[in-house]
Amino acid sequence: MISICFVLGTRPEIIKLAPLIKLCKKKKIKSTIIHTGQHFDYNMEGRFFRDFSLKPNYFLKLNNSRSYNKNFIKKAVLKLIDYYKLINPDYIINQGDTNSVLASALAYKRIRNKIKSKLVHVEAGIRSFDKKMPEEINRIKADKISDILFAPTIIAKKNLVNEKLTKKKVYVVGNTISDTITQNFSKFKKKNNYKQFFFLTLHRPETVDNPKRLKTVIKTIINLTEELKTKIIFPIHPRTKKKIKNLKINNLEKLFIIKPCSYNESLGYQKKSKLVLTDSGGVQEEACILKTPCVTIRNNTERPETIKIKSNILTGYSAKLIKKAIYKMLKSKKSWENPYGKYVSAKIVKILIKEYKNEN
Ligand code: UDP
Fold first, then answer.
1. Which of 147, 259, 288, 327 has the maximum number of C-beta atoms within 10 A of its C-beta?
2. Which domains does the chain have, with CATH numbers?
3. Pick from 74, 118, 73, 56: which is nearest to 93 by CA?
């Protein structure tokens, strides 16, 4: 019987792998989940396992409940090597661009000749072309080491072709986030009384680790709440919360800052908001699928599909451009189609079963 090991460690990986893991379990594929513990705040990981009814089989607990381990990647590699030897699954599946993905790929690279497993990368080939972003380096390395690459779109596949990764098995399947949304759509939190609001998320190092930048972004958004008489709902990422404290921004209370919210709340807020403002990768995709115009406060994006179909716009970090983009997107006709496909997990499982039969 085919066996699969899923390695994950952060909020977006749990969210995007949930439909795939559930489908494997339904099909009685032997599934093992390893949680690296990269995210260690209950609101960023534990609650998502609970809400998606998933349970890790192995929990590496590499970060303690307060802080990120500086040697996280090194330690994760060593532990994962042991688990890969022990479990020796047919497929090891990674999703996205986190340090857990990188650690998993590096562990696999060290012992690929000693185990039967093939390494699979879900959401392969997406590129921001900004090598200063740790996520970009993680994606490139993970794609290089993996054997089977599931690209979400044709654009992502083209990036893999340009990097000459065509000898690997590359499939364009869409993004599993489409399945996650479909499966959770009916569970949106109904109650919220705000007539008009924007939904804001910020967490990327290039936004929040640069105090001047973060201050400009937050001040610009506060000014706009007054100008547009709009509420801003801002579930704050632990990293951002830490950084914002030191900035001493006037009128911060004008933002409706809440703890990181549940997945259903996140979908509910995104669906009902007039605009989504973000620097998150996954949120750009979700806003697009949910037909809410998105303003991405970054210089670049690895989700160019959303820019092409005009569901999303890039602003950079200047107050003037953020403001201009917000006014522009408020007039959006919302006439785009979802570029991320559907039944994506089913396509992935079908391909893996076929690959397995060919190999065995
Ligand atoms: N999200 C959530 N609660 C929140 C903020 C975001 O459930 O308070 C979800 C969001 O809907 C999306 C994912 O978290 O599915 C995005 O994660 P994040 O922005 O941390 O990572 P990225 O997508 O940038 O890798």
1. 288
2. 3-175+341-359 (3.40.50.2000), 186-329 (3.40.50.2000)
3. 118
